[in-house]
Specification:
Number of domains: 2
Distance between the termini: 13 Å
Oligomer: single chain
Order of helices and strands: EHEHEHEHHEEEHHEEEEHEEEEE
CATH class of the largest domain: Mainly Beta
Structural class: alpha+beta
CATH architecture of the largest domain: Sandwich
Helix content: 25-40%
Number of strands: 16
Number of helices: 8
Largest sheet: 6 strands, antiparallel
Length: 301
């Protein structure tokens, strides 16, 4: 697709993301856009869900794209706004990472906010896959990860350690390993089923999660496949070894790690907390399918 000419952008800002860095970065962005004679509008999120509502209710047709300034949770809000308002392919989404994890931005290959903006201004776009999630009450969307078991427990603890910055994911992982215990999991992967005691189950759309962890090294953002990581049982020592391998992606070679790719799945156990795009939101049971090439983003994948 021919690169889009950028004349006006709307920035969706999470002021709380990344240790309050947003004010300084906003000033840099304004200076750069002023030099290039590009019009802009900034919307500051004041509470959870406000970015989703802004996209759903505002007339965005005058913008050449939306740009998220935040982390993975802020991106999730934008994705839900675009998907629920049927604008996910008509208005490209740019990612300017200022969160503490930035797993999705890491997979895109640029963690520097100003360099990320420069990539956006090139106008190159791509279509990527999105999770469609149904629980008993609603349908919503995700772009990165759905985690159960230890994958959810780590995130709950990491939220309490937010003052530590990005390293909190690694610290929370180590603490959770020390406390680890199996839980009952019942899941359907389409052609196969899982039922029994398990440690963790993750479904991923992209390579990274947490801070630098290559959880799904074979994941591709537009391949129409969900990458599943599943560990049913292992000793604490073995799980610690697996943890150290997450940063290189070599954990998938461990015999205790089951790695597969599916187009849909369901978690059928009741009332288990879930990690969805790095946020502690929702609970099982859920049904998930992947919508291929559902969202247009700035960048080449």
């Amino acid at each position: 697709m021919k690169p889009k000419e950028i004349q006006k952008l709307c920035f969706l800002v999470n002021p709380k993301a990344g240790k309050q860095r947003s004010e300084a970065i906003v000033r840099e962005i304004q200076d750069l856009l002023g030099q290039k004679n590009i019009d802009f509008h900034f919307f500051n999120s004041d509470k959870e869900g406000s970015i989703t509502k802004f996209i759903q209710t505002e007339n965005l047709m005058g913008f050449d794209g939306l740009c998220v300034l935040g982390g993975d949770g802020t991106i999730n809000e934008a994705i839900n706004g675009l998907m629920s308002s049927d604008q996910s392919q008509s208005i490209p989404l740019g990612i300017i990472p200022i969160g503490s994890g930035n797993a999705f931005a890491e997979t895109l290959g640029e963690l520097d906010p100003i360099k990320a903006l420069s990539n956006i201004l090139s106008g190159t776009t791509s279509l990527i896959d999105v999770f469609k999630i149904d629980d008993r009450e609603k349908t919503f969307f995700a772009i990165n990860i759905i985690g159960w078991g230890m994958a959810a427990e780590v995130n709950i603890l990491a939220e309490k350690l937010r003052w530590m910055g990005g390293i909190r994911y690694s610290v929370a992982s180590l603490i959770t390993v020390m406390r680890m215990k199996q839980k009952h999991l019942k899941a359907n992967l389409g052609k196969s089923n899982i039922e029994g005691k398990a440690l963790f189950f993750l479904a991923l759309n992209n390579v990274h999660t947490g801070k630098g962890m290559q959880m799904a090294p074979n994941a591709i953002l537009d391949d129409g496949l969900i990458d599943i990581i599943f560990v049913s049982n292992a000793s604490k020592l073995r799980v610690l070894k697996i943890f150290t391998q997450l940063f290189s992606g070599t954990h998938i070679k461990d015999p205790h790690v089951e790695y597969s790719q599916v187009i849909s799945f369901a978690i059928e156990t009741e009332n288990d907390p879930l990690n969805i795009d790095g946020e502690n939101t929702g609970a099982s049971p859920i049904k998930v399918e992947l919508i291929n090439k559902a969202v247009r983003i700035f960048g080449k994948i």
